[in-house]
Amino acid sequence: MPNAKEFLERLKDLVIENRKVVLPVVLVAAILITLGIGVSANRRKQQQEEVQANARPEQAEAGGEGLAVPDVPLEENAYPEINELVMRYYKALEEVNTDELTEIVSPLTDTVLIRFTEWAKHTQSCPAVNIYTKPGPRKDSYIAYVYAEVQIAGYDETVPGLTSFFICKNEAGNYYINMEEEIDKEEADYITAINLQDDVVDLNNKVTAEFNELVQTGSDAAQAFIKVEESITKGIQEALLARQEAEQPEEVVEPEETAGPEEPQVTSVAKKAKAVDVVNMRSSDSEIADKLGKAQIGDTFDVLEEKANGWTKLSDGTKEFFIKSEYLEVISEETTTPQEQETQQPQEEQQTAATNPSLGSNGYVTAKTTVNIRKSASETSERLGTIYMGERLDLVMNQADGWCKVKYQGQTAYVKSEFVE
Q1: Per DSSP, which regions of 153-234 are E strands?
Q2: Check: CATH 2.30.30.40 for 346-419?
Q3: Which of 283, 326, 356, 419 would give a disulfide with 371, using CB separation of 3.0 to 4.6 Å?
C-alpha cells in the first residue's frame, strides 16, 4: 500500500509543473480510493512545506500570490444539485450507461469512456454514498469528496472508498464533472491546498482506517479492491493499443515497375530529439487528445514530422505519438541517401541476426504477456517500465543468458526472452 511519502510524491507530480499542470480523470491520482494514507498533524505541515520547497523558481515568480484559498469546513450533503449529479454518475456506472455519462461528464474523451467501462466491470454497486464539498477554484465550482461503500463484483461485502470530483457549472447553468486533463497552475495549487486542509486529510484518514481494518481481518473483498486499479490500467492500455492497431491503414502493395532511367538520389534527414521537460505524449496534435504516456527529461525519440502548428510527431520504437515542439530539443541530424539507408546497419543489429535469426529476425520482438522492462539483464535490476501483450520493442540482441537486449524509450534495456516472440 502507498505510504504518506509516496502519496506526497504523486501529489507533487500532479500539481508542480511549469506553465500547465496535469490533472487526471476526476482527480483520481490525488485522492481516489484511499489505501493507507494516514497523515499526522506534524507530517501534514511537513508535506505543505515540501510542496512549497519543491515549487520551481519560475513558477513562484509568475504565479504571485495565486488564488485565495478559503479556510471553510467540509459541508456534508449540503447542495442538492451536487448530490443529484454525483448520484447520477454512480447510477450510470452501475448500469454502464455511457449515454447518461455524456450529460454528466465533460470533456468525454475516449480515455474517460474506456476507464468508465473498465471500472464498471469491477464494481457491482455503491449502496451507500456520502458527499462532502469545499468551494472550488472557479466561480460556482466545488471540490466534492465522495465517500462510498463499494461492492466489488463477485463479493457480498462492501469496502469503503473515497473519490474526489472537480465539479463546475457550464454556460447553460448546469453542473458537470470536469475531467479536463490539464488545468492552470493557479487552479492546481488551489486544489493542492484544499486537499491538505485538516478536515480533508482527517476524512482521508477515517476512510483509510476503515479500509485497513478490513485488510487486517483478511477481507477478500478488500484484497480484491487493491488489485482493481491495476486491472483497470491494464484494460485501458490494451483497449488503446487495440484501437491504435485498428486505425492503422492496410498496407498497399504497389505493382512492380519495369526498370527505367536511373533517377537522381534524394537525400533525407533523420532527426532525433530529446524532451527538455516532463510532458504528455498525445495520440494527435492537440492538448485534448488521449494521453499515451509521459516523456521524462532527457528521453530521446525519432522525429517523424515537425508540424507547422507547433507539434512534433515522434516514435520511441514501439508507438507513434505527438509532443509540443517547445518541450523538445533536436540533438542530432543525419543526412542519408536511399542507398545508404538500405545498406547501413548498426553493428548491434547485425549481431542480432547472427545470434538468433528465429527470434526478432524482423528487427523487433512482441510481448506475449505483461512484462517488465529492466535496466540490466537481471530480475533484481531497476524496472524502467512495463509493456503489455501485443506491444513491440526494437530488438538489439537475443542473448544466450535468457534475456533480450532492446530499445525502450530511446535507451538500451532488457526483457526476458521467454515473455516475447
Answers
A1: 158-169, 175-178, 182-184
A2: yes
A3: 419
How many other CB atoms are there within 10 angstroms of residue 10's CB atom?
16
Q: What share of the chain is helix, strand, coil (3-state, %, to 5)?
A: 35, 30, 35
- Split at pLDDT 50, 70, 90, the class of 27 is very low
Phi, psi of 231 (to 5 degrees): -65, -40
Which residues in 23-104 belong to E strands, given as ranges? 75-76
- Apex 9 CA angle, 5 and 11, nearest 5: 115
Cell of 257: 515497375
| Domain 268-339 shares a fold with domain 346-419 | yes
Domain ranges of the chain: 4-238, 268-339, 346-419
Phi, psi for residue 203 in degrees, rounded to 5:
-65, -45
DSSP string, 279-295: EEEESSSSTTSPEEEEE
Q: Which of 146, 17, 135, 32 is nearest to 90 (CA)?
A: 146
Range in 288-292, 319-323, 341-345, 394-398 with the lowest mean pLDDT: 341-345
Contact 183, 107 (CB under 8 A): no
- Indicate the CATH number of 268-339 among 3.40.190.10, 3.40.50.970, 3.40.50.12160, 2.30.30.40: 2.30.30.40
Report the pLDDT value the prediction gives residue 169, as an integer from 0 to 100. 95
The C-alpha atoms of residue 59 and residue 412 are separated, in whole angstroms, by 34
Global pTM exceeds 0.85: no
50-62 pLDDT, tens digit per residue, is 545 444 343 333 3
Q: What pLDDT is stored for residue 198 in this prediction? A: 93
Structure confidence by residue, pLDDT tens digits, 335-349: 555 555 444 444 444
Place 360 in a pLDDT band, splitting at 50, 70 and 90.
low
How far apart CA 95 and CA 282 sit, in angstroms, is: 30
Of the two residues 355 and 317, the one the predictor is more confident about is 317
Count Cα atoms within 13 angstroms, Cβ side, for 95.
Answer: 10
The dihedral formed by the CA atoms of 334, 340, 341 and 342, expressed in degrees to the nearest 10 = -170
Question: Half-sphere exposure of residue 106, counting CA atoms within 13 Å on the CB side?
Answer: 11
